[in-house]
């Protein structure tokens, strides 16, 4: 089963494969360190919460470095819109996936 990442409007913008985050076209764009989301370059972006990337105002958790590129994981298909969600924190998925 694919673990999708959604934006606040409910659209699937990416998915998780192992410790990497991929855009819907399969391109690796980020990495996970627990619930901490970092760009592939290592720069901190936000927290993974309820299948969204949110700015939970935890400060800057630094740069974890570039682990290399895992390659293109392919397109898993689009699960459709899950409906708009708001967890009280700003959606920062656009920082990772582009607006």
UniProtKB/TrEMBL annotation:
Residues 4-82 form the 4-fold beta flower domain. This is 4-fold beta flower domain-containing protein. InterPro entries: Bflower. Residues 59-99 are annotated as: Disordered. Residues 59-81 have a biased composition (Low complexity).
